[in-house]
């Protein structure tokens, strides 16, 4: 047993060391001025395209932000989620990704066209970097923090429906499940709570949380951690015999503003998913929720740190990636 325990400890140490070394290499590859000599105005080109798209539809913001998260958590931040498949076998075809709003994909494609319209930039900026920049821009456009984006990612060449399986957090996850999934990407519990604040924007479908308001358990028809008045409002918006794809704002208070209201809602039992509400009901993360609820600046700072770390996940180097001429297909 001692030898087995020693072996497990050694393996764990090697895995952690490998993760740290990989993170260090990625950090060295990524830098804010990566395109200084090849496409110095890349940020203004992307921002202009994203702003124009945002003026057309607000959905641009939550759709782009969610697209970035789904991309990074599956195969790393390599824009593999943008790839299409003739037989519907790409990442975007997985049930967990089918609900990704088309406006997010359209935002990246339009920004890519804007960048490539500059002869100096054509085919020099990756779709993965454009998605990272566009994500920062939609956050700022909705009142959230603006921040420097590390650049230098290559676009991945692989996108499979199978790779999405068990890679994204579910609406019923508990704190241990959330922490385990985020830790696999070198993200802490504080990072996880901060990134969950992205639910201050966007919407979900009734089918993702209907069990919390109709059939929670044999003893409780409604999840007892859910604010009863809020549950009744959700029932009105999501009748039992209705299309489960009806969209509901995840933040019922300020759904079009990137702010800390999400955490204030959790304090009131108004987290739409049980994986949201658990952040407050579990004492291990409650203090972080309370901090972010009381201090918007603290939330913004933590969110910027967390999304910057998220942007380093699985970055492709060398022949692992390329700069796609078309974000929807490999070269």
Automatic annotation (TrEMBL):
Entry cofactors: Ca(2+); heme b
Positions of the catalytic residues: 70
Single GO BP term: response to oxidative stress
First-listed, main subcellular location of the protein, grouped into a coarse class: secreted
Residue sites binding Ca(2+) 2 per the record: 200, 251, 254, 259
Single GO term (MF): heme binding
Leader peptide range in chain numbering: 1-28
Positions contributing to heme b binding: 199
PROSITE patterns: PEROXIDASE_1, PEROXIDASE_2, PEROXIDASE_4
Domain Plant heme peroxidase family profile: 29-331
Protein name in the entry: Peroxidase
């Amino acid at each position: 047993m001692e030898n087995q325990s020693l072996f497990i400890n050694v393996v764990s140490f090697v895995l952690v060391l490998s993760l740290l070394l990989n993170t260090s290499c990625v950090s060295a590859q990524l830098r804010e001025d990566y395109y200084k000599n090849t496409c110095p105005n890349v940020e203004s080109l992307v921002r202009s395209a994203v702003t124009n798209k945002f003026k057309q539809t607000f959905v641009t913001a939550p759709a782009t932000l969610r697209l970035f998260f789904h991309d990074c958590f599956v195969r790393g931040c390599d824009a593999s989620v943008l790839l299409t498949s003739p037989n519907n076998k790409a990442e975007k075809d997985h049930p967990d990704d089918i609900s990704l709003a088309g406006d997010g994909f359209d935002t990246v494609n339009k920004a890519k066209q804007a960048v490539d319209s500059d002869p100096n930039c054509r085919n020099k900026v990756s779709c993965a970097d454009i998605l990272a920049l566009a994500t920062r821009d939609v956050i700022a456009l909705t009142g959230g923090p603006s921040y420097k984006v590390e650049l230098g990612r290559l676009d991945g060449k692989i996108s499979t429906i199978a790779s999405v399986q068990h890679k994204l957090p579910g609406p019923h996850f508990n704190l241990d499940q959330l922490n385990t999934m985020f830790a696999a990407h070198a993200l802490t519990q504080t990072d996880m709570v901060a990134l969950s604040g992205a639910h201050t924007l966007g919407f979900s479908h009734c089918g993702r949380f209907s069990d919390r308001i109709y059939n929670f358990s044999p003893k409780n028809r409604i999840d007892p951690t859910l604010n009863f008045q809020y549950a009744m409002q959700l029932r009105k918006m999501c009748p039992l015999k209705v299309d489960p794809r009806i969209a509901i704002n995840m933040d019922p208070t300020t759904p079009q503003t990137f702010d800390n209201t999400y955490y204030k809602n959790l304090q009131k039992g108004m987290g739409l998913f049980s994986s949201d509400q658990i952040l407050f009901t579990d004492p291990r993360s409650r203090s972080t929720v309370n901090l972010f609820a009381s201090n918007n600046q603290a939330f913004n700072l933590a969110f910027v740190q967390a999304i910057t770390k998220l942007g380093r996940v699985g970055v492709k180097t060398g022949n692992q990636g390329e700069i796609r001429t078309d974000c929807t297909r490999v070269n």
